[in-house]
TrEMBL record:
Lineage: Eukaryota, Metazoa, Chordata, Craniata, Vertebrata
Gene Ontology process terms (BP): nervous system development; sulfur compound metabolic process
Protein name per UniProt: Sulfite oxidase
Role played: Catalyzes the oxidation of sulfite to sulfate, the terminal reaction in the oxidative degradation of sulfur-containing amino acids.
Residues of the full protein shown: 188 to 571 of 576
EC category name: oxidoreductase
Catalysed reactions, as listed in the record: sulfite + O2 + H2O = sulfate + H2O2
Oxidoreductase as UniProt keyword: yes
GO MF, any single term: molybdenum ion binding
Main location: mitochondrion
UniProt superkingdom: Eukaryota
Pathway in which this enzyme or protein is active: Sulfur metabolism; Energy metabolism; sulfur metabolism
Keywords: Heme, Iron, Metal-binding, Mitochondrion, Molybdenum, Oxidoreductase
EC number: 1.8.3.1
Length: 384
């Protein structure tokens, strides 16, 4: 069993697949803390977790004029400044289950919690590429930076992905070769000893157990870059789909969801108010500027309170424009409509480019069930 050396996991996680291991936390845990504890951080593995010896670990950097560069973990930690960011990762398939309700899609049936927020520390990819011989004239022929994981399938094929070169080398891109998550060594499930963190970019490009970096004219040839993680028209089916016709997902669209109350919950009328909580995030470093909440299925709206830090503590300093990599948690306490026995609670977020979420799922349905970001709706019953 290639999965026999997979690590232990927290029993509270909702498992979508055991081998490979894919799991998400109960949604209400996400709004308990601004930084998601690593044990609860969603886990998305395509393959068995590789066991990497940190003492003999090597990272290879290829494709630059200076020839190949090989770095040990110690090199990465000592030869480059340590940089820390707070960044949210979201799987392209987050909220896929809502697309499945419209019409069956292919993929893991994720709920709303294939998204989490952590602090990441490591060397800047930019600094490592510069040390490996990157110069501005490389951009005349190179367009992409490819990443290969050390996890392999039975045929020896590794997980791989790529990101645009300009994201990788930009001083404002904040792409990290991270060796710490939430102030500790990266746990095995999240890429020990080194993973790429490409903030603002879909989870799939944040390659774990990083073994190789290749600067190239072409995108990664991996299955996951070429024939997966792309969006299509609702009218495209498996007979007509042409994966070459669509770009690989990189930045993700504006997203928000209600973490509590849960769908189908029964709520006590008690003091006549209701507290609703959730998360909101947008890709490409766009900052969430507002979350609107409705208790009547979208007829009337109120703006929620946004938070970017732990409860009761000073908020994290506001990020420079275009570098809002972390989510906002939001909360609203509103009076319950008198006599209401049932409510449809809805949320929708707005980012600083005024991108907004679509109101329903059908117009954005796609056969892979990715980019699922319609208004999130939760129905609850009110007990007298
Ligand atoms: N990197 C490797 N090497 N192997 C993988 O299976 N999964 C990707 C990405 N990086 C993956 C990987 C996907 S699809 C996602 S959503 C994120 O890792 C999940 O990161 P997490 O498990 O730390 O939450
Ligand atoms: Mo993913």
């Amino acid at each position: 069993d290639p999965y026999s050396s997979d690590p232990e996991r927290h029993p509270v996680l909702h498992i979508n697949s055991l081998k490979p291991f894919n799991a998400e936390p109960p949604p209400e845990i996400l709004s308990d803390s601004y930084i998601t504890p690593s044990a609860f951080f969603f886990k998305r593995n395509h393959l068995p977790v590789p066991q990497v010896d940190p003492a003999s670990y090597q990272l290879h950097v290829e494709g630059l004029p200076g020839g190949a560069l090989t770095l040990s973990l110690e090199d990465l930690k000592t030869r480059f400044p340590k940089h820390t960011i707070t960044a949210t990762l979201q799987c392209a398939g987050n909220r896929r289950s809502e697309m499945n309700k419209v019409k069956l899609v292919k993929g893991l049936n994720w709920g709303i919690a294939a998204i989490s927020n952590a602090t990441w520390s490591g060397a800047r990819l930019r600094d490592v590429l510069l040390a490996a011989g990157y110069q501005p004239d490389v951009a005349q022929w190179a367009r992409h930076v490819q990443f290969e994981g050390l996890d392999t399938d039975v045929t020896g094929t590794t997980y791989g992905a790529s990101v645009p070169l300009n994201k990788a080398v930009s001083e404002e891109g904040d792409v990290l070769l991270a060796y710490e998550m939430n102030g500790e060594d990266i746990p095995p499930d999240h890429g020990f000893p080194v993973r790429v963190v490409v903030p603002g970019t879909v989870g799939a490009r944040n390659v774990k157990w990083l073994g190789k970096i290749i600067v190239s004219a072409e995108e990664s040839s991996s299955h996951w870059q070429q024939n997966d993680y792309k969006g299509f028209s609702p009218g495209t089916d498996w007979d007509t789909v042409d994966f070459k016709s669509a770009p690989a997902i990189q930045e993700l669209p504006i997203q928000s969801a209600i973490t509590t109350p849960a769908d189908s919950a029964t709520i006590d009328r008690s003091d006549g108010t209701l507290t609703v909580k959730g998360y909101a995030w947008s890709g490409g470093g766009r900052e969430v500027v507002r979350v609107d909440v409705s208790l009547d299925g979208g007829k009337t709206w109120q703006a929620a309170q946004l938070r970017s830090g732990e409860k009761g503590q000073a908020p994290e300093p506001s990020p420079p424009p275009g570098r809002a990599w972390a989510w906002k948690l939001w909360e609203i306490t509103a009076p319950l409509p008198p006599d209401a026995q049932e409510l449809e609670i809805v949320c929708k977020a707005v980012d600083n480019s005024y991108n907004m979420q679509p109101d329903t799922v059908s117009p954005i349905w796609n056969l892979r069930g990715v980019l699922s970001n319609a208004w999130h709706r939760v129905k609850v019953k009110i007990r007298k």
